[in-house]
Structures are given as structure tokens and as C-alpha cells.
Design goal:
Rossmann fold, alpha/beta, Arc Repressor Mutant, subunit A, globular, 5 strands, single chain, five-stranded parallel sheet
Amino acid sequence: MTIESAFNEHYHDLNVNERQTLSRILTNKRDFSNLTINELAKKALISKSFIIRLCKNIGYSGYSEFKYQLKRELEQADKLLNSQNILEQTKLDLSETMNLIDFDQLAMLCRKMKQAPRIYTYATGYGAKNILEDFKRGMVAAKKAIISFPTSIELKLNNSVMQKDDILFVVSMNGQADTVIKELPFLKEKGIIVVSITRFLVNPLASMSSFNLYLQTTDTNGFYTSYVPLCLLLDLIVKQFLNCEA
């Protein structure tokens, strides 16, 4: 079982600090894979006992076993993503993203989009924000304007003008968009329809959203995240929107 799978399985058994620490490690595997427990504690500003407890809480005997698994996953990823099979991995990511799409849910979402007074978008990360700009272009072609929030500050400032049946798309690969998550209870109470787009893993953003859309993307060497699956998913939303009736 991968560390990410163990995280998903034990997600609700972990406290907030444990979830944040593990998410940080998984997002920066290469930075953490060679650290001793003392180095990890210093780098993450946590105690050794906290690290040991966290490892045990997700099914490992201790930090040594956890570190071994972390290095093993990096080695497997490096072996997988060489120059000969990068194309195959990309095809696999796109195929898995297609498998994750519930087209009945997508059709229902598009009907809601037809009826929505306004549609908003927000993304964590520069790359995802750029992809959403192209999504806006597609929706303009479909005669539906979209308002994008460049930062969580704009989202918070516009809470008061958002109204019932408006739709908010939130893109976050790991679903740990803490600044936005704090606003979701208030938005949902107002009747705002929140649509999350994340990787296929248990995450707080998806658990608090009205619609959950998932994608699969494999990081290259722990540094580069491909947004091709996100482009595919948003493209399908535009096409479904063009073909659905209100």
C-alpha cells in the first residue's frame, strides 16, 4: 500500500496537524525522503514523538518503515517515468481521469450551470489558474460569462455579493485549500453550489462540496505536475454544457 493510500484509509483518524504534516511530505517527497527523524522534526517544526505517532496512525511500525516506503515510491516513480514511457503514463492518466467521470453527475452540473445567475472560479496554484482562464474562454463561446478570483482574498471579499444558485468552481490538486475551506460553510448556507476539482483522494474540499469532480495526474520526479487531465475535464464540461438543456 502506498503512503497516499494509507493516508486516505486513515484520513478521519488523523487530527488536523497530522493531516497537514503528511500532506506536506507527500507534496514534497524528494525533499523529505533522505531526512533522519531529527532532521524531519526540525524541518517540519514538530517533535520526534509526533512523527512516530503519525507513522503508526497510518499503519507503519515507525519512522524507519515509513521512510523506506517513501524512498521506494520515489524509486518506482523514477523508474516508471523515464523517456520511454512518459507518453504511456500520460495516456494512463487521461484514461483514468475519464474513468473517474460520472457523466450523469456532469449532466446535472451543466443543467445547474445553465440556471446559475453567475459562475465563479478559484484555483490554488499558478498552473491551475492559467488552465481556468482557458475554461473561461470556452464558456464565453457558450455564451456564459465566468468571474475568476485570482486569490482567496477576492473570494472572501465577494462573499456578500454571491447569491443562491451561483456556482463556484474550486480547483486544488490535493484538496487542502484551507483558506477557501473556511469560507465554504458560509457559502453553502447561502445556497451557493460549490464544485471541487481534485485528485482522486479523500480530502476536506471534496467532502464539503456539492459536486466532486476527480482527475488523475502523475507528478514527474516529484516536481512537475501535469495539468493535461485538468484540461480534459474542463473541456468535457464545456462540451457537455453546449449540449445540455436547462
